[in-house]
Specification:
Elements lengths: L2 H7 L12 H21 L4 E3 L18 H6 L2 E7 L5 E7 L1 E3 L3 H51 L12 E3 L13 H4 L16 E3 H5 L14 H8 L12 H47 L4 H10 L1 H4 L2 H17 L4 H8 L8 H28 L7 H34 L4 H4 L10 H27 L7 H5 L1 H13 L8 H15 L8 H10 L3 H15 L14 H29 L2 H26 L2 H26 L20 H19 L2
Antiparallel strand pairs: 1-4, 2-3, 5-6
Amino acid sequence: MKFGKEYVSQMIPEWQQAYMDYACLKNILREIQTSQKRAERQGVVKHKLSGRRNFSGLTKRYSRTFSSRDLENHDILVHATTGDDGFERYETTILKVAEVGRESELVFFKTLDLEFDKVNGFYRSKVEELVKEAVVLNRQMDALIAFRYKLDQPSSSWSCSETVSVDINALDSKEQKGKTLAEEMGIKLEENVSNGGDSTKETVPEALSVLDRIRLNKNQENPLSTIRNVLKLSNKEDLKFTRENLKKIEERLKNVFIEFYRKLRHLKNYSFLNTLAISKIMKKYDKIASRNAAKLYMEMVDKSYLTSSDEINKLMLRVESIFVEHFASSNRSKGMNLLRPKVMKEKHRITFSTGFFVGCTVSLVIALGLFIHARNIMGAAGHKLYMETMFPLYSLFAFVVLHMIMYASNIYFWKRYRVNYPFIFEFKEGTELGYGHVLLLSFGLGTLALSAVLVNLDMEMDPNTNNYKTITELVPLFVVAVVIAISVCPFNIFYRSSRFFFLMVLFRCIAAPFYKVNLADFFLADQLTSQVQALRSLEFYICYYGWGDFKKRQSTCKSSDVYSTFYFIVAGIPYWSRFLQCARRLIEEKDLSQGFNALKYLLTIVAVCLRTAFSINRGNNWKIAAWVFSGLATFYGTYWDIVYDWGLLHRPSKSWLREKLLVPHKSVYYVAMVRTRKIDRTVYKP
């Protein structure tokens, strides 16, 4: 793989604009090379020594005279200046002015200096942010240590008026003597604490006084806390010194340490990649321009803050030491596995199993078609009743499998175009599913469902089992029961972390107004709006088996007023969930666009209900109303999705789409727009 592609593939997506623009610099070098080739054909001399550099208006720099010694020893000179913001700025001067490609060389070094200043400034600002985070983390760790000591030594054994002096090392046997965690991390904290002239001695009440200034912050929102916030009731609770609270605090702080360490690793990788990019581009410049400038420029880079700063390495070492001692029981292997989780690689058994189930699915589809043709099932008596009862039951699995395949394709393109979807959806690191895992689950479910269909038909047509109609009718229910049992299984099988995350987000969608809306919440709610027919199939399961119709294979659901009522409700649940999510975001974020988005879902709810009423009653009044609101919802929804969500005809854009596109092929966006509108239009067209 060429370095340019490898360089881009290793970028942190969130910082992509802050990296060195390697491609731009490489394009400038191509211009220099083209100019030189053109000059060689014309017989022009490549270089000419000069003691003065005449700058073009493009560089906006001043002229400067250099000594003959500088001219003899170096091709370039790099000097640093400090700006008003305290950041260093670097300027490169070319001592040997070329007759050909002169302007391109000036532009090259001007661009290189600007890019390096950008990288160096970004790196410094991020280091300062992490140092501040380390200070906060230090205070939280001190509180955890005091909490542990409080549990081990209950306050009843001493009073605050006592002046018992203990070594600060006694607060935790693994702490270094006379050092706070901030000092261990290489950070100095100014604390107004009197130690009586002894830096290693502190009274117990002073050491535990931090507990008086903290409380257990409940980050997990729940319906009760939302109601209390609306009623402006206090959610603060006194800190209770219990093992349960200690376990919660340790778990939260452990996750904070892991996230903090991940940021440190990203910043270290950022420094390495940009330094390597500068080295590569300077070697290319030396080769193309026949100069010896790379060594001098890299000496400047080595002295800059980007490479000379050692704060990140020190913080990483201290975080590793503290994490291993306090959260891994001094087991370094266990601690480092938590801090540096291994990247999930596509295992061969996943690929093999996916291919196996794909083959099974295709084979079962062919076998089903041959079975229906050989037994002449479509021409047999009772096939119409079979399609009215059994087909809606099995269609549920078709909707789910198709949706999972579409989601797997999303993951494939996210990975291909380097979308950090685990970070965006807040998946637990190392537990996110790849497209291979999702395809395995989808085709596994498809194989199970198709096998059930074949078993059901065979039992139906076989004279030996024809009398066991009750058992035959229970086959689809058995498959649904298996799927539900696997979904809620508490054992660590079948991707437990992903299953529980899905169930949690599903619950948050159902209780939409009581939870703060995250991206995963409204993403799943949007997906459910395309699964109205699947939800109605679930309703049919409850009606068909709950009311005992399966014993006689007859459906009285459509003649029931209760079923018809819930037929409306089920169709509107996904859109109502999105409406509530938009309403909450409108209230919290004061974003007027969320109100217009909520209006889109409200119109869709009305259109779906009217269309459902028309399909049941078939009256002219319902038909007109269904047409009007379906047309209005379609127009409004199409405009919103294409203009606001997809960015088509966006005003600041010079083209039809928005300026910044993740996928370089614009045709992908147009195809996705058409497919999305086709799917949505089938939901509420009359």
